[in-house]
Amino acid sequence: MSYIVMEVFKTSIYISVPIILIHLLKNKILSKYTHKLNYMICILITLRMLFVSSIEIYLPVEVLNKKSNKLNSVAYISENSTNLEIFLSLIFYAWILGTIFILMSNIYKQIMFYKKMKNIKYKIEDEYIIDALEKEKQALNIKRNINIFKVNGLSSPALIGFIKHKIIIPNKDYNQEEIKWILRHELIHFKRKDNLLKLLLMIASAIHWFNPLVKILNKYFKEQCELSCDEEVVDKFSIDEVKNYAFVLVNSLRYKNTLKSTFCSSQFYNDEIKLIKSRVEKILDSNKYKNGTSISIFIAMIAVISMFSISTITNQNISYASESVVSNDFQSIEEEFVNHIMSRLTEEEKRQVKIVRDEDNYPIISVGESKYFSISKSFEKESK
């Protein structure tokens, strides 16, 4: 349990650094690059948040001294080690309860969203909408069947679902131009698997719920998701078509949303007025932004490298005490460990010695109330 807690906290520290950099640089440096790049950075951080356990890589090295120094496995632990273990156990249970609470809360909201929507959705039978959907699917090379529904109380079109995706739009009239832009926006969300990525973000946020910086990442992730989608929608279109798309976006502000969406939906319109204003400004902005391909590769490499932990071993044979069968080699090391400690003690200290085993069956030698000795959790076998 203590291992899991330490790995989660260590990972949370790792991801805090890029989140802080995003917050500090988003208006000065990151704004010069495409929203696609910014969105990819958010995705990489999210994936790193999910990978809370390091991958051990053992590098064999030549040892000049062939004699096995088994006494290197002796470690000193303080007399408060038991209290530390209790404290870490409490931290673990608090963390796991918080994670479960956030996951269950989001699942409950998702269930309630579908339950409310069940009785207020209507399958669309308008030919021009169905034809527009097929044309946009063909343009984006999408072959999956995607149903489209009208929903009462919804202000903005959205893509919902993870496996069986559906497009839902407000129960109002749209002209052909508006439907074209709306469907293209939602189909791009579908093609990029944005709902799945938002699910991963939700899980990662639940794991790191104790880190306040995660809220910054959540907000920036959702902003860049929509802005990068807008960026892709208007790519290679004329200025008039871009203005029409911006008008459709602004026009959706007139309608009040009474049916709240959940984490797994990608909406055409977001409730935050500042984000809508920013989206319109970015859509109409004629400035060219940098792709930042080299930056994205560099960040991806850093994220991957941070997942690995490198250790060195003196030979290829290494055993762990977690194995079901303890080898004779390990027993001999235990005996040598005990004998070595005993040889360092005075006669008075020897009379106070107590030998017990921890939860992993490792020997712990205590001398009175002040000295503790423990064997490490791994040992090396001598080369035969």
Automatic annotation (TrEMBL):
The record, for InterPro entries, names: Beta-lactam_resp_regulator, Peptidase_M56
Q: Does the keyword Membrane apply?
A: yes
Key words, A-Z: Membrane, Transmembrane, Transmembrane helix
Where exactly are the transmembrane stretches of this chain? 6-25, 37-59, 86-108, 295-314
Q: Where is the Peptidase M56 domain?
A: 7-281
Mind telling me what this protein is named?
Peptidase M56 domain-containing protein
Q: Which organism is it from?
A: Romboutsia weinsteinii
Upper lineage: Bacteria, Bacillati, Bacillota, Clostridia, Peptostreptococcales
